[in-house]
Amino acid sequence: MAKKILVTGGTGYIGSHTVVELQQAGYEVVIIDNLSNSNADVLEGITRITGKRPVFDKLDCTDFEAMKALFRKYTFDGIIHFAASKAVGESVEKPLMYYRNNLVSLVNLLELMPRHNVKGIVFSSSCTVYGEPDTNPIDENAPVKPATSPYGNTKQINEEIIRDFVHSGAPIKSIILRYFNPIGAHPSAEIGELPLGVPQNLVPYITQTGIGIRQQLSVFGDDYNTPDGSCIRDFINVVDLAKAHVIAIERMLEDKSDEKVEIFNLGTGTGLSVLELIKVFEKVSGKPLNYKIVGRREGDIEQIWAQPDKANNVLGWKAVETIEDTMASAWKWQMRLREKGMM
Known about the structure:
The protein is of the alpha/beta class. Helix content is 40%, strand content 17%.
């Protein structure tokens, strides 16, 4: 019988792409999402890609009574936990919202897992836990530094909660995946990044500027200590990232490791600046981008990219998509949204 996976935040950007990969790998999927930063129409795209509609319950992970009812309704083999508020800038403005959403949701899941014999949880973490790194690239042994934003701090605290809970003797396993910068869309252009309102992430703002929805892109700073003065990130294709979650779930459920908590960096191993990414977009779209340099943004890290050897060699995963194909997929998705009259 197919194993059943609960995907929290499964109508969101990374969640929806992971649901596709899970279903194509033969897993049964139950999605829960409160739709605070996503749209239930994503389910149609998932269904068109996979030929199977995932089960969906509109539900908030911070609602413990609703979560108890969910765990009584279904029997889960494992959980992939995406549901969280995730914008650095917004977290600086609304820290309490971030602490409530991001911490309570995880605590509720962990409390319910042993009661219902759920074996493992894959946690969606972030390279923000490394803060401003001393050197690059960053491997999993790099020090976790004081967070530069409440968002980053919630990821650090959640990692500690998982470790403390497992250390207490809880009969669960966890794989913590520290993402670098997910971008792009499914090559079918059936699903992609669809922020509600003004995008908080770079690539949707680039594509929306390219198509004329936004008048101008702001580049936050050109005076960093980098070759072109703009911030450097490790931009990873969202489908590559989604596939890592399927491998992680399989690793946990099949007890391929004796370790109860494992941490993996998910990135390409290559740093690319914001201005370089803009040039890639202009190349693949054939459109010059209207952008301006503005002051630095609070909470931004100067430069960070991954040393992904552990994910490559231990997890058995590797990022394979090129940055050109990734940006082309983001542009194709934006044009599909225009075709649909969505934006």
